[in-house]
Amino acid sequence: MVESSPGSILEILYTGDPPSGYARYALRCLTPAQMKSISSTVVSQGIAAVVQLPADTYTDKPPADAGSRILLLEDIQDPGNVGTLIRTAAAFNYSGIILTEKCADPFSPKCIQSTAGTALSLWIRRTVAYLDLVGDLKKMGYILAAADLRGTQVPSLLQEPARLVLALGNEAAGLSESLLKKADYRVRIPIAGTKAESLNVAACGAICMYLSSLK
How many CB atoms lie within 10 A of CB 4? Predict the structure, then answer.
């Protein structure tokens, strides 16, 4: 977070000796008991940051420079899955993430913990008007690829678009028909169906994002 979004950090909280490399930030020393009271982890690492959340997170317009690859999460409700997908998107150099209003809060404690400090390294939009936002992106030349258990196209197609929106759906229901109708691609990851019915959405997302990064 310090490297990817330094302007968002308001204050560094720590226990013990002052941390090195944070001289440009306001520092506040806490007792171990104080740190434990504000930390959601069982064993704190002894350092935390107070950050300012992006003001445009809950708008329905993409940034001026939306980037070449965007992840869309439709109604993914487990904060661990959402956080893992944010972390994976950052690792594969995705620029932004669109979440529906029924998704887990990307800034909830469990989700933030799962992102491992990457939550502010991409732009995030969480909006009820996500279909309109997707429509705007398609007009800008983005290809919408849906990960779909009923899809007939191979996931290697994800390598082709210069501008890509990758859509992943709810853990139980998958993607809505409204979104699937907008999709340019409906890709399916081949699995041994006699052994496993489906993949976890975070695993599916990781495979698709990796394949899309193979240019």
Answer: 13
Question: Hey, what domains does the chain have and what are their CATH numbers?
Answer: 6-51 (no CATH), 69-212 (3.40.1280.10)
Type of residue found at 170: N
Q: Which one-letter amino acid corresponds to residue 145?
A: A
CA distances from 108 to 174, 176, 208 (A): 23, 25, 25
- Asked if 78 and 113 count as a contact pair (C-beta separation under 8 A), the reply is no
Do 22 and 3 form a contact (C-beta atoms < 8 A)?
A: no
Provide the 3-class DSSP secondary structure of residue 57. Answer: coil
Judge residue 2's burial from the number of C-beta atoms within 10 Å of its C-beta, 0-12 exposed, 13-18 middle, 19 or more buried: middle
Q: Return the exposure string of 29-66: e unless at least 16 CB atoms fall within 10 Å of the residue's CB, then b.
A: ebeeeebeeebeeeebeeebbebeebeeeeebebeeeb
In tens, the pLDDT along 34-84 reads 888 888 777 777 888 888 888 899 999 999 999 999 999 999 999 999 999
Rounded to whole angstroms, the Cα distance separating 159 from 18 reads 46
What is the Cα–Cα distance from 149 to 202, expressed in whole angstroms?
14
How is residue 56 written in tokens?
Answer: 């445009």
Residues 92-145: pLDDT tens digits? 999 999 999 999 999 998 999 899 889 889 999 999 999 999 999 999 999 999
The CA distances from residue 157 to 105, 129, 143, 183, 189, in Å, are 31, 27, 11, 13, 11
